[in-house]
């Protein structure tokens, strides 16, 4: 199939505007309209992964981490990043990364960790702001329901577990069309008073084009009056980290054994174990030290993540247990998640999980 079709599906699951500003998710190499025979999925894109794609006749590599993270001024093959890029281009292999946008969706990377640990009643630990907008428009009362239905069908009106949410108030609108108008109601050159419904509804920023098309195509007026307001509200279903509850509280050592087993971790770096039992658990795949304050504020008994620096362990201040399981270990099941996402939509598409372990860290035990 065309690469653009596969990309569309991935970005409906984890929209690109959900990624952090520093990130570089999306199509890194390749043309959206190229035909894809098969895809190889891995956590990282290394030379070995590209060689595996060549051997397996895969002309697309999907990874969690983007191989091109910062700008490349030269591509001479001097670094491993440049060599990967050169080899992919030479062999007509597309590279696609789905990084912090996949971290930030509820059923993404952190959802996988929470599920493996058996956490219940999960929610986003640090929801993102500035992902919502509000549409306000005015429509003749008789046509208001039809317009609302069109806006809802385009994706407007979702608030948490509720859909088709809107606020409506009736009032009187006025207008006076000149000689170039063909008014739906009223006459040219005469001020018209029309009973209208003010419709307010929210939508996510990536759906703005669809919402506006639905508005303009289904509104009866030839000149549609509307306002769009950016909102600072948090979107509770999108953001960094996740927090949830174990079925029963466990003592510290039993909890670490649970994490080590469920996350297939070689070793766990952790803070001092506390006398209280662990039940409320925060998680963050990858480098999660920036969420420590949020985990403490949320009342977590433990925080499972990776890449804590030495002095950052002190910041736990005996308020919770930090369990640093390693960056690769915290995200290693992301590849399985990506395969599930793709196969659910395209069950007959040839997609393979890499046979290589791309963890650059080795442990001497």
Automatic annotation (TrEMBL):
Name this protein carries in UniProt: GTP cyclohydrolase 1 type 2 homolog
Top-level taxonomic group: Bacteria
Pfam family, one: DUF34_NIF3
Any single GO CC term annotated in Swiss-Prot or TrEMBL for this entry: cytoplasm
Molecular function terms, GO-annotated: metal ion binding
Record-stated family: Belongs to the GTP cyclohydrolase I type 2/NIF3 family.
Binding site residues for a divalent metal cation 1: 65, 103, 327, 331
PANTHER family attached to this UniProt entry: GTP CYCLOHYDROLASE 1 TYPE 2 HOMOLOG, NGG1 INTERACTING FACTOR 3
Membrane-crossing residue ranges in chain numbering: none
Residues annotated to bind a divalent metal cation 2: 64
Keywords assigned: Metal-binding
UniProt subunit comment: Homohexamer.
Listed NCBIfam families: YbgI_SA1388
Keyword Metal-binding: yes
